[in-house]
Amino acid sequence: xxxxxxxxxxxxxxxxxxxxLQVDGSKILFDYGITASDPPKYPMPxxxxxxxxxxxxxxxxxxxxxxxxxxxDMPVVSTAVSREVGLMLMQDSVKIAEAEGYPQPYNSNDVRxxxxxxxxxxxxxxxxxxxxxxATHSAGHIPGATMxxxxxKRSTLLTGDIHTLxxxxxxxxxxxxxxxxxMESTYSGRNHPNRxxxxxxxxxxxxxITNRGGTVVIPSFAVxxxxxxLLILRDSGLEFWxxxxxxxxxxxxxxxxxxxxxxxxxxxxxxxxxxxxxxxxRTRALGGxxxxxxxxxxxxxxxxxxxxxxxxxxxxxxxxxxxxxxGSNGSKLLETGMLEFQGVNEKINxxxxxFDFSAHAGHxxxxxxxxxxxxxxxxLMHGDNRExxxxxxxxxxxxxxxxxxxxxxxx
Length: 411
Ligand SMILES: [Zn+2]
Ligand SMILES: [Zn+2]
Fold this sequence. Notes:
The longest helix is centred in the N-terminal third of the chain and has 21 residues, at 80-100. The chain is globular. The chain folds into two domains: 3-190 and 359-410, Ribonuclease Z/Hydroxyacylglutathione hydrolase-like (Metallo-beta-lactamase, Chain A, 4-Layer Sandwich), CATH 3.60.15.10; 195-354, Rossmann fold (3-Layer(aba) Sandwich). A hairpin with a 2-residue loop joins strand 17 (338-341) and strand 18. Helices cover 32% and strands 23% of the residues. It is of the alpha/beta class. The chain contains 13 helices and 22 strands. One zinc ion is lined by residues 56, 58, 141, 161.
């Protein structure tokens, strides 16, 4: 048995992933996402397929599902938590496209139709497509993130986005023995600093700012990162506020505590969080210690209005908690010290710092994970710098493939 594969997107880049595999006459699509850049980037159109399997809710993996379900009749396999968060992000992407005037691959009605096409799986379940059986494992990246293991004479593991170390929110992914490994490679060539040290310096920095009378604004991705930050703040004596889409994600995660490392701790963290529910509360939040808010890359959301209030106060600070993609407002801030507010560039005079709370495995973690899976062949995906990891894996005796988007490959 062999597998014919093609990346419709997300092979040699981080974003818009679509992995089309043909096995035993069945066509399967793993993930189908968009890159939420300005303007968004879409993957190549998918042909009709027998089944779509979703690894997790982030838009670069899920964002094209309504396009697919409005054209073809097949189930979308996913954990319940990925479905709920994914549908929320898809509806939000329709709103953003309308507001920004982007061409839209689907409308909000298509998202409602997509909602009825999901088939729920839990970790440990297996699904069947034709003669093929596919097992599911936790990917450790965000709650509900799934690795898929295609079983048979030769087994193939597809990781989606993975994190192998335990974070506050999720337990790390464990290697699965397989013959072929299709693995993400976002952090090829880069390692993360020790997480405990990052947390310690993060809390120390916040305390330093509040002790000098400043306010801390923490721009944070709504899905995963916001909850990780709230879990860290839970143990501090600080008064912390939350605004933006992270509030909705909190509610969804509380409904699915089985996908969180400690549902009890997450509940406690959310109970300690002051939610901003109206404009009046925004003023009160600015009088507290910390405001956690979307968007993580400062391209919209309430974050900009909070920053507008503190940007000329050298006692206050912006603490970035995620990757700032090139071209985003957040990367402009890091490179030039300026931020764009409704088309106008303004100088930022408060303190700005960045902390690494990544939910992806670093280079050495990916090496250890691959060794633990001990495959013969490895296909690297979801990376714009795959060669460094490929080189290190080849030096360990693995056969490594780096297909480009649109290129046909066989394993
Ligand atoms: Zn992701
Ligand atoms: Zn991703």
